[in-house]
Design a protein that fits this description.
Helix content: 40-55%
Radius of gyration: 20 Å
Shape: globular
Oligomer: single chain
Order of helices and strands: HEHHEHEHHHHHHEHHEHH
Number of strands: 5
Strand order of the largest sheet: 2-1-3-4-5
Largest sheet: 5 strands, parallel
Structural class: alpha/beta
Distance between the termini: 38 Å
């Protein structure tokens, strides 16, 4: 995504959408563009599978020049991406091993994760920064005409014929029981933000404020059965309330906020859900329209009011 979704695009984004797979699968730039009054080419969806605020901040700090024309940052925040339990995800572990500073590695919640990432920082075995495995493979089967290890600090992953973690892995979406999905989303005994994700999210907000770029925080709707549990089960409701209070306290304060729970709120309905968290193509269209209208209201409230009057 960083290379082909940002660096290789001919036009730098004016509106960037940061987030996870919910962002990647759940937004339709053409629909958002029509609803918000933007050219779809000016919109850039920068969601990644298992994405977290760490990935957002890493993308910004590695590529600040590509955001020179940015007028609005639309940032997905959801309870699962912010939890300490997310640190066990192999995709996030790989991202941390590639790009995290020592300070960021020291913030990991579990001691064994901290030790593993600290060791990787000292002696990189899988990191593209100075991967010993990649250097060995480059010597064994070098790319013709290429330097042994050109510009490691600018590399996203080792080149195509080098080793890459979980390359070719296929994941399937499944409709897990609603109570299991709710536990994964908000926890059961209490919700608490990961120190690493909290730091990175606040750095994203601070960077945007420093560059005078307004931020719209949003949350995708969830499957109705999960929403019912969050509303009606005391444990899940308490955890979600803790998460909501955290978002409300975020500083620098976002210019706008769109937080949905039920897909009916944007017209998608249960039929618009691909699984417990992700929208399908139909749901993405409804949500993109809803989000686009909120973007227009934030960016140009006079035009938004006129558009509503014309309806």
């Amino acid at each position: 995504m960083e290379h082909y979704g940002l660096r290789k695009k001919p036009v730098d984004p004016q509106v960037a959408f940061f987030g996870s797979s919910q962002t990647f699968w759940g937004l339709v730039p053409e629909v958002i563009g029509r609803a918000s009054g933007h050219d779809p080419d000016e919109l850039r969806v920068l969601g990644v599978e298992a994405g977290t605020p760490f990935d957002m901040w890493n993308l910004i700090r590695r590529n600040p020049e590509y955001f020179d024309n940015l007028k609005l940052a639309v940032v997905e925040v959801n309870p699962v991406m912010m939890q300490t339990g997310k640190e066990g995800d192999a995709r996030l572990q790989h991202s941390i091993s590639q790009h995290a500073t020592l300070e960021e590695r020291n913030l990991l919640h579990h001691r064994h994760e901290r030790l593993k990432q600290q060791a990787e920082w000292l002696l990189p075995l899988t990191s593209a920064r100075h991967s010993l495995r990649s250097v060995f493979l480059a010597l064994a089967d070098p790319e013709e005409g290429a330097e042994l290890y050109p510009f490691p600090e600018g590399r996203i992953h080792p080149v195509a014929d080098w080793y890459m973690h979980n390359a070719g892995a296929v994941t399937k979406r499944s409709l897990v029981p609603a109570d299991i999905a709710a536990r994964r989303l908000v926890g059961y005994k209490g919700w608490k933000a990961s120190a690493l994700q909290d730091l990175c999210l606040k750095k994203v907000l601070a960077w945007m404020e420093e560059h005078e770029i307004p931020v719209l925080i949003h949350q995708f709707p969830l499957h109705p059965e999960v929403v019912d549990l969050i509303h009606n089960d005391a444990h899940f409701h308490h955890c979600y309330t803790q998460y909501s209070a955290y978002v409300d306290r975020l500083r620098p304060k976002a210019a706008g906020m769109v937080r949905l729970l039920h897909p009916d709120e944007c017209g998608a309905g249960m039929s618009g859900m691909a699984d417990r968290m992700h929208l399908n193509e139909s749901g993405a269209g409804y949500y993109s329209l809803h989000l686009g209208e909120n973007i227009r209201t934030l960016v140009d409230p006079v035009a938004a009011e006129k558009a509503r009057d014309d309806l």
